[in-house]
Write a structure and sequence with these properties.
Layout (H helix, E strand, L loop, with lengths): L15 H5 L13 E4 H17 L5 E8 L5 H13 L3 E6 L10 E5 L8 E7 L4 E8 L10 E7 L2 H12 L6
Parallel strand pairs: 2-3, 3-4
Antiparallel strand pairs: 1-7, 2-5, 5-6, 6-7
Amino acid sequence: MPSVSAPERFAARPIGSALAGSPYQLIGADRQIRHAPKHLLVPVSKTLELMALEERVPPLVLAAFEDVRFFRPSTVRRFTELAVRLPFVAALGVGMPSSPAPGVRGAALSPQDPLAREWTVVVLGAHMSAALIALDLGDDGADPDRQFAFVVTYDRRLVTAAAQSMVGRVTTG
């Protein structure tokens, strides 16, 4: 029996709205937004990184760190490992250099960019889509206690839109 394809599955879709917004701005009203301090979200972020390393078909990883000061030496080591094993790894943040770690593509954000207030980790591949999308709520507590509004999602459409929003900020220079 011949296979039947669904041409609409492969139809081009406009990405203009994804590029105009930040990942947090793309979250629909139907999603439950939760709140947590940074120290509870760090394991979620690291779990997504680990999931990326375990995929049979390597995915891409994009991460927004708000500011380069949050791209700490331990993060540099983890992202260097990711870049060795994955096809594309990028880190975005205010003051981020173009090459923040070996093999990692960097993108400096303007402090006015809405992504500069977000902590987002996107893992997108042939068989996997996952993201932590978090908005810094701007409190002045100690760094591990800073509060975030966040969503963890495996919805391919939202993860893809978040990836498009982020990769659109990474230049090819």
